[in-house]
Amino acid sequence: MAEGAEDVPVVYLHDIKREYRQGEATLTILNGAKLALWPGQSVALVAPSGSGKSTLLHIAGLLESPDEGEVYVAGTPTSQMSDIDRTQIRRSDIGFVYQSHRLLPEFSALENVMLPQMIRGLKRSETVKRATEILAYLGLGDRITHRPAELSGGEQQRVAIARAVANAPRVLFADEPTGNLDPGTADHVFNALMQLVKATRVAMLIATHNMDLAARMDRRVSLSNGQVVELE
Predict the structure, then answer these.
(1) Nearest 10 degrees: CA dihedral of 124, 127, 133, 134?
(2) What pTM was computed for the model?
(3) Residue 12: strand pairing partners
(4) Residue-by-residue pLDDT tens, the chain, 232 positions
(5) Which CATH number, 3.40.50.300, 3.40.640.10, 3.10.450.50, 3.40.50.620, labels domain 11-230?
(6) Among positive and negative, which fits the CA dihedral 3, 76, 131, 185?
């Protein structure tokens, strides 16, 4: 896929199967699951706890391998890739936001956002510039020197979002990103996510129980019998 092309999904899950052993029993979590994520499109994954939402996110984000099926990133199959190549794709093309912000407590907001860029090998001056710009874009320009403990819950989560998009990923995965926030703060954080999707054309898949937020996204999907189903 050529850089910037939008005729191929950013991520495509094809016939994904994933099973787990529980004692003598085998639990089938995903069974023939298919899902395409397109540039600039937001998708809500709405399903009950234990249905496989996190498993789907982990497989799509190359954090976990399926038992069967293929995960394509920008049209490229990943199942036969080395761990090093998969790690490189995660660093350059994939961003993650979790329910808990997972910020490093000893680092400032700016340093937390700089870190993934430095791991990727960018110059410090470049990482400072980009991290500062992203934090300012998310309304945190006056909080860049603050450590996580000095920030509100909503501010912490916006820093986590900034960190997730620091390397300009193709796709953003979020697992209940507003689950620990009050309704007003959750709405503010959600708006920040949607703003970034439209501004950067990143694809986004959010696992959420919040139907009000899901209704504001481009697509809504669920899981049924191990497969992805489209919702109205």
Answers:
(1) -150
(2) 0.89
(3) 36, 72
(4) 334 456 899 999 999 999 998 888 999 999 999 999 999 999 999 988 888 999 999 999 999 999 999 999 999 999 999 999 999 999 999 999 988 888 999 999 999 999 999 998 899 999 999 999 999 988 999 999 999 999 999 999 999 999 999 999 999 999 988 888 888 888 888 888 888 888 889 999 999 988 888 999 999 999 999 999 999 7
(5) 3.40.50.300
(6) positive
Partner residues linked to 35 by β-bridges: 13
How many contiguous H segments (helices) and E segments (strands) does the chain have?
A: 7, 10
Question: Kind and range of the H or E element at 202?
Answer: none
- Residue carrying the six token digits 């960018």: 122
Query: In degrees, to the nearest 5, what angle opens at C-alpha 131 toward C-alphas 149 and 3?
Result: 135
* 94-97 and 171-175 strand pairing: parallel
Most distant CA pair in the chain: distance in Å?
55
